[in-house]
Design the sequence.
């Protein structure tokens, strides 16, 4: 066989599965299904600026359907691909009020449920900044042979089997984590495959970047303001002031935080006492991934992954990223006894 350097996502996940004699390959197949949906989303994202131009010639496609907004398209694509997946028994999405439990005899025997934010950072579409898809995979806790139930979707992050994101940036990448580590795959457009480009990603223990919507400062409490003061303080010997970077797409801000180190925060404030970001399909998957890469994620009181969810769309504050930076932030914002 000709030697080659490219390892596709599929080849990689199958190789990983072989390390575990009891593994069935179902998780690999599910990751392949998610990657298929994200390639379909990517195709539309790459045309985003053209939609209006194309629209002048009739904003309907060959089936006569109207051009859909990207976040609706992304949601519909993920749902339809996962409905056809042999391994997914149901999904929950930012875009749907309730979970969707697939009610057919094949799905009744599928082991996994998937929660997702189909298009994260959608306000960035108009300005051509990176956007993403976030996903979280749990093994069902309800018995096989029946439709999945609410409790399958309300599991804490520490029960995740795998989680990750796709970033539609200057290139398209899929980054996913299992308990044994985090790997990144870049889409090779000429063959339409995600190929291993960032093996065994580790989040640097220290960082020099803090990421937060500082425009909300007037709504922050004094402890958080004290930490932001610390980030901006002129202490050259300690590497401060830190740089501030904030894209406003969690996926893009987290991708930078994972690769370069740093801290990303979406704290509670006086108008959003629970923060803005959603636990089940934004914070938990990112927390699982960052922990697998050696980082830390907290809600300011304890580990994000230990929160027992009570609602599908519940929100949580989040402080996430390089271990030493997050722990320093928690010295300011957390009650001492609850620091992770
Ligand atoms: P979504 O587009 O899925 O609703 O998520 C937007 C989120 C997240 O991507 C980002 O970190 C945050 O909103 C930005 O919010 P602010 O504009 O309030 O800073
Ligand atoms: Mn989002
Ligand atoms: Mn979204």
Sequence:
């Amino acid at each position: 066989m000709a030697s080659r350097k490219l390892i596709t996502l599929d080849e990689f996940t199958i190789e990983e599965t072989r390390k575990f004699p009891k593994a069935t390959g179902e998780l690999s197949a599910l990751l392949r299904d998610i990657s298929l949906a994200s390639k379909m989303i990517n195709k539309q994202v790459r045309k985003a600026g053209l939609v209006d131009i194309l629209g002048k010639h009739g904003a309907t496609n060959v089936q006569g359907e109207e051009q859909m907004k990207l976040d609706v398209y992304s949601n519909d694509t993920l749902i339809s691909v996962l409905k056809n997946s042999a391994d997914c028994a149901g999904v929950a999405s930012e875009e749907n009020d309730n979970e969707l439990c697939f009610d057919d005899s094949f799905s009744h025997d599928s082991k996994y449920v998937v929660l997702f934010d189909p298009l994260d950072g959608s306000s960035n579409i108009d300005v051509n900044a990176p956007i993403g898809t976030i996903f979280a995979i749990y093994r069902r806790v309800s018995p096989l042979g029946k439709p999945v139930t609410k409790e399958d979707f309300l599991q804490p992050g520490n029960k995740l089997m795998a989680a990750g994101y796709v970033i539609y940036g200057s290139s398209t990448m899929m980054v996913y984590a299992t308990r044994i580590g985090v790997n990144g795959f870049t889409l090779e457009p000429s063959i339409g495959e995600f190929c291993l480009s960032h093996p065994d990603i580790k989040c640097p223990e220290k960082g020099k970047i803090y990421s937060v919507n500082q425009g909300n400062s007037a709504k922050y409490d004094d402890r958080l303001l004290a930490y932001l003061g610390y980030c901006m303080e002129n202490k050259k010997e300690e590497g401060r002031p830190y740089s501030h970077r904030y894209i406003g797409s969690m996926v893009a801000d987290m991708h930078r935080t994972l690769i370069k180190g740093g801290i990303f925060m979406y704290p509670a404030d006086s108008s959003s006492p629970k923060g803005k970001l959603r636990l089940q399909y934004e914070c938990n998957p990112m927390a699982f991934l960052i922990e697998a890469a050696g980082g830390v994620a907290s809600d300011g009181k304890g580990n994000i992954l230990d929160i027992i969810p009570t609602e599908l769309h519940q929100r949580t504050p989040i402080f996430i990223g390089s271990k030493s930076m997050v722990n320093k932030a928690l010295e300011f914002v957390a009650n001492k006894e609850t620091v992770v």
Notes: The mean pLDDT is 93.
